[in-house]
Amino acid sequence: MTEPKDFTASMDSDSRRTPVRVAFVTRRTSPQVRTRDDRYVMTYPEVLFRAAVASEILLLALALVSLFWNAPLEGLADPMQTPNPAKAPWYFLGLQELLHYFPPVVGGVLIPTLVVLALIVIPYFGINIEAEGFWIRNRDAKVRTLILVVALVAVFLSWFKVWAVLIPTVAIVALTLVGAFPSAHAGAFRRWLHLKPLPFWIMSWFLIVATILTLIGTFFRGAGWALVWPWEVD
User: Fold this and answer.
1) Closest C-alpha among 171, 196, 169 to residue 182
2) CA distance 158 to 1
3) Which parts of 26-135 fold into alpha helices (H)?
4) I need a surface site. Which of 79, 143, 168, 211 has the fewest CB within 10 A?
5) Residue 39: its pLDDT value, please?
6) What Cα–Cα distance (Å) separates residue 91 from each residue in 2, 97, 101, 211, 218?
7) Which pLDDT score, from 0 to 100, does residue 53 have?
8) Rounded-to-integer distance, Cα 217 and Cα 211, Å
């Protein structure tokens, strides 16, 4: 038989200060948790409410833009006359840019499939709820692995002369390695790099490469998919 515990009832409006006690909430108080200085934020209703507000603001902004500016549409398609260059919609221009460098099976099927699978699978490996920095543990082994993987990727991209992907890849890896060895007198930026987790670096690389490929396909490709200056594109 365990000794009975003493339960006390109290009136309190701060549910974070008394999380395991029974509290009577009066009409003049609120059970809402103030999370300004808390590490965790409740997903409902705080985060869901913010996402709903952001979606409404975006919808209103798009509606206002559509009222004052026309969509940049071309004329009706003519099956007897193919435009040169024939560009895909902007959200597919990054993929079309890859098709310029790689064979169709590699640039149109293999690489997109591997990227999508990686974005789906990687978060399930070594789940890090605390968002621990990538270099916190096993730094030396990670440095060797990263350099080996990047060297193989660099050889592959150099073989096909995909400089638009190779240059940002090397830049991202360089920033990652800068944060691997923070000194005692390291600046705030270097310490910030040191504390970033692996998903941050992967997603940053993906977004930067996708943006660069899309910009090149949109503004720097002319007739015959040749490189031109933006003001020379018809």
Assistant:
1) 196
2) 74
3) 48-68, 93-101, 104, 111-121
4) 79
5) 64
6) 66, 11, 18, 10, 10
7) 93
8) 10
pLDDT at 55: 95
Average pLDDT, the chain: 80
| pTM exceeding 0.90 | no
Written as one letter, the residue type at 83 is P
Q: How many angstroms separate the CA atoms of 218 and 107, rounded?
A: 18
Using one digit for the tens of pLDDT, what is the confidence trace for 40-66? 666 667 778 888 999 999 999 999 999
With a cut of 50, which residues of the chain have pLDDT below it?
A: none
CB–CB of 94/214 below 8 Å?
yes
Residue 108: count other Cβ atoms within 10 Å of its Cβ: 15
234's CB contacts (< 8 A; 6+ apart) are 222, 223
Residue pointed to by tokens 């670096």:
201
Residue the block writes with tokens 């003519």: 78
Contact assessment for residue 216 and residue 168, using Cβ atoms and an 8 Å cutoff: no
Cα–Cα distance measured from residue 80 to residue 72, given in angstroms and rounded to the nearest whole number: 22
> Who contacts 88 (Cβ-Cβ below 8 Å, separation ≥6)?
95, 96, 217
User: What is the pLDDT, as a whole number, of residue 134?
Assistant: 79
Q: How far is CA 46 from CA 19, 33, 50, 59, in A?
A: 18, 10, 6, 20
Question: And the tokens for 217?
Answer: 């396909």
In the prediction, which pLDDT does 88 show?
85
What is the reported pLDDT for 169? Answer: 92
* Sign, CA torsion 56/58/62/65: positive
